[in-house]
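Hi F.,

I've been meaning to write this up properly since the lab meeting, where we talked about keeping a consistent format for the predictions we share between groups. The idea is simple: the sequence comes first, exactly as it goes in, then the structure tokens exactly as they come out, then a line or two of notes. No screenshots and no reformatting. I'm using this chain as the first example so we have something concrete to point to.
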Amino acid sequence: MTETAPRPTLEAVAARAGVSRATVSRVVNGGDGVRPPLVERVLRAVDELGYVPNQAARSLVTRRHDAVAVVIAEPETRVFADPFFALQLRGISKELTAHDNQLVLLLTEGRDDHARVGRYLAGGHVDGALVFSLHLDDPLPGLIRRAGVPTVFGGRPGWSDDDERAAVYVDSDNRGGARDAVRHLVGLGRTRVAHITGPLDQTSAADRLAGYRDVMADTDPGLVAEGDFTPAGGERAMRALLDRCPGLDAVFAANDLTASGALRVLRERGLRVPDDVAVIGFDDMLPLAEQTDPPLTTVRQPIEEMGRLMARLLLGSPRDGAAPADDSEPPTGVVLPTTLVRRASA
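Output, unedited:
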């Protein structure tokens, strides 16, 4: 067995720097009121001794944990199969890392998990929560409000108007992006434009359906089929659409995974894309959108940037009831623009 060297203490750092223990504590905990020459001496001593602050003790002093919960209201089988979540988590992780914060990932498989997440957030383990992929009947918003932690939501909330106005969230222009996609298909001369939705208990899917209907107001209701943001859901919906509307000549899919499933079914049925049926997706998830056959025309939303912005808003929110530094109210809803990316499918 090997003996480990004793862990450097605040007292050791204070002795090396020639200052009081209280001065060292203020410096390592980010406090004010220490003259720059003393700060430099303390930091040099910290580096020389390899001192690492005791996070538990530091939390007692600062009431900060430097940890943020990321709550995804989906089962792990969905989260780890959908590159959307990886992109958003990458953006969140980059921003948290830049501010020396840890990411704590919480997933929900069912109602028991909702209660577990609520208890965890209420237990004071994290400084705030980033929550996305909510469904309309999800109990998480109520549990989070009761936990009393600062929260930023990914996606426009869909609950009651008063609560929605009070929520801080980041979203993309789902409705406007859908309008751009469908207008592009109409501009190509397509007259039988179908839509495969996402799960309509999520506001992103409902907004994309609304955008489709903004352009195709008088279309046959049979040209709309509900999907679930997965390739398998896209396959099922595409088969149903072709069975009841064999003359359709274009499809706007609610996301790129759905579009990939639709493309497989069109190929199985001997239909050429875009000659017989043009296809547009939503997300522009790379490399998926470039590797479909043919490469997918899609609506790009800045997924990674949305994650970074969620984290940035949370880290800038007031803690422990304190007012913002500039006495301004934090923004509630931030909606980022989308862009139509043209490739070979439409």
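Notes:
The first helix runs from residue 10 to 17.
The CA atoms of residues 84 and 181 lie 19 Å apart.

If this format works for you, I'll send the rest the same way.

G.
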